[in-house]
Amino acid sequence: MLSRTAENLYWLARYVERAEYLARTIEATLRATALPNAYVGKTNEWDSALLTAGVADGFYRHYDEADERNVIDYLAFSLDNPSSIRNCMDNARLNSRSVRTALTGEMWDTMNSGWIELQQMWHSVRTREQLATFVRFVQEVSLRFDGSAYRTMLRNDAYWFSRLGLHLERADNTARILDVKYHMLLPEKEHVGGPLDYYQWTSILRSVSALTAYHWVYRDTLKPWLIADLLILNDSLPRSLASCYGNLVRNLDQIGVAYGQHGPSQRHARGIRNRLEHARMDDIFQHGLHEFIQEFLGDNSRLGEIIATQYLS
Fold first, then answer.
1. How many domains in the chain?
2. Which of 133, 154, 160, 260 is deepest in the core (most CB within 10 A)?
C-alpha cells in the first residue's frame, strides 16, 4: 500500500473518532449545565470542556469568555479551530475521497451522505434542541461509519491502518477526560461522594458511553477509584486505555506480519500495553494519577509520531 493511502485511511479514522468525541463532550456538558446549581457547583463546565478537548489555548486567542455560546461555536462550528466538529468532518470526507477505492461502498455512502446532511445542519443550529439533534447525528455518523468498516472491510492493511487511527485517537480522548475530571472539575472543598461528585462522574461516564458498563462490572455506587480502574485498566471496555492498546498492538502486529518486518512502532505499543497489563490502581494513585496520565499522553503522542515515520512518510 502507498504510504499516502495509509496516511489518508489513518487520519480519516482519527477525524471521525475526534468528531464523535467532541459531540459527546458537548452533549455531556449540556446535560451538566442543565442541572440545578446545588448539583453542579461553581465550576465552569464549559471551560472544562475546552480542557478535555485540548483546545483551551486556541479558544482564548479568539474569545474572551468560556460561556455556552462561545464554546459550542468553537468546538462545533468554528473554522478557526482545526479540531472543531466541522473541520473534522470536512477533513474526514476529504480523506475519504482521496482513498475512495480503498473504502467499501457502505463506508463511502455513510461518510458522504453524513457530510452532506451536516452541511445543511450546522448553518441552522439556533436552539438547544437543534444542537442536541446535531450532536446526536454526528455520533450516529461515526457509529455507522465504524460499523460499516467493521462489517464490510477486508482484514488487510487498509483496515489495520484505519484501526490504528481510531484507537490512537480514542486512547488520547479517554485519558484527557479522565485527567480533567480529577484535577479540574471537582472543587477542592467538595468531598468525594457528594452530590456534585456523583453528577460529574455520571457526566464523564456518559461522555465515554460507560455508565451502564460501570454498573454491570462493579455493581456499586460511583466511586472515583473504580471509575479510573474501568477507564484505564479494564480491557473489556472498548474505550479504556488497556482495550485501545490491546487493539493497537494487534493491528500493528498484523501490519508487521503482512510487510515482513516489525519495527519501533510495534515495540513502543507493546511496551505501553505491558505497562497497562501490569499496573495496579493502588500503585497508580500512590504515584499520582495525573502524573500517570500525563506520561501516558506523552507515550501515546510518541506512538503517533513513530507510526508516521515508520509507515506514513
1. 1
2. 160
SS3 labels along the chain:
CCHHHHHHHHHHHHHHHHHHHHHHHHHHHHHHHCCCHHHHCCCCHHHHHHHHHCCHHHHHCCCCCCCHHHHHHHHHHCCCCCCCHHHHHHHHHHHHHHCHHHCCHHHHHHHHHHHHHHHHHCCCCCCHHHHHHHHHHHHHHHHHHHHHHHHHCCCCHHHHHHHHHHHHHHHHHHHHHHHHHHHHHCCCCCCCCCHHHHHHHHHHHHHCCCHHHHHHHHCCCCCHHHHHHHHHCCCCCCCCHHHHHHHHHHHHHHHHHHHCCCCHHHHHHHHHHHHHHHCCHHHHHHHCHHHHHHHHHHHHHHHHHHHHHHHCC
pLDDT in tens, 199-233: 777 877 888 889 999 999 999 888 888 998 999 99
pTM comes to 0.91
Which residues form the domain of 215? 3-311
